[in-house]
Write a structure and sequence with these properties.
This protein is mainly beta and 211 residues long. It contains 2 helices and 16 strands. The strands form 3 sheets. Strands 2, 3, 4, 5, 6, 7 and 14 form a 7-stranded antiparallel beta sheet that branches. The chain has a 6-stranded antiparallel beta sheet with strand order 10-15-16-13-12-11, covered by helices on one side. Strands 1-8-9 form a 3-stranded mixed beta sheet, with no helix packed on it. The longest helix is centred in the middle third of the chain and has 13 residues. It is globular, with a radius of gyration of 16 Å. 36% of the residues are buried. InterPro entries: Mak_N_cap (IPR040999).
Length: 211
């Protein structure tokens, strides 16, 4: 379960992405366009310490881009290359925003959802002391089964941006996170697929192969 706050962010997530996206090798779009949110979903951090959200965004008339994000209350050691920026959260204070592909919490969550056949986290807002459910605007599903053995991802050995994906090599799996969506032909095997408004046919978002 993801418990969210009705809060203000300065700068906003989209403002951070507007300055960060043009520097990515997989980005397609104008260098100085406003970034709009298309859809989003969240995973749970079992420890409850890190926010894990994947946003689908578009800049100008460009394609839809997938950007996993993690939100932390302190810098992540050794992850400077994956820091998107910092933002001031009106409830939680300063937050360090990372590209999730470089954050072991996102990588472990993605691996678990893929192999267990999991789905996105339920999202709730706390309003006047009451918890209210927020309807999802994106649905994701892993291809595995509930009683599967989940590989322990362990350390991140290599995280590499490629033309239309980011490859993450861990102790036990190699994950590929697709960046421009939809990304060609469907992928077989251990995958995460998703649908959202305007994309009713499931598309592959990420896939995993054992090491």
């Amino acid at each position: 379960m993801a418990l969210l706050h009705r809060a203000e962010l300065h700068p906003t997530k989209l403002e951070l992405l507007a300055s960060w996206l043009p520097g990515r090798p997989w980005y397609e779009g104008p260098a100085a366009a406003d970034v709009e949110r298309v859809a989003a979903f969240r995973f749970d951090d079992p420890a409850g310490a890190v926010g894990v959200e994947t946003m689908l965004v578009r800049a100008g008339a460009g394609p839809v881009h997938q950007v996993p994000l993690t939100y932390r209350d302190a810098p992540l050691d050794g992850a400077d290359d994956w820091l998107i920026g910092t933002t001031e959260h009106s409830v939680l204070g300063r937050r360090w925003v990372y590209d999730g592909c470089g954050d072991p919490v996102y990588v472990a969550a993605l691996t678990e959802v893929i192999y267990s056949g999991g789905v996105q986290a339920d999202e709730y807002f706390e309003v006047d002391g009451k918890v209210e459910h927020r309807e999802p605007n994106m649905l994701v599903t892993g291809s595995g089964v509930a009683d599967a053995d989940i590989p322990a991802t362990g350390a991140l050995h290599h995280v590499t941006d490629e033309d239309n994906s980011t490859a993450v090599v861990t102790d036990s799996v190699r994950l590929t996170v697709l960046r421009r969506l939809p990304a060609g032909n469907p992928v077989a095997g251990a995958i995460l697929t998703g649908t959202w408004d305007g994309q009713e046919t499931p598309v592959t978002l990420a896939y995993a192969t054992p090491r």
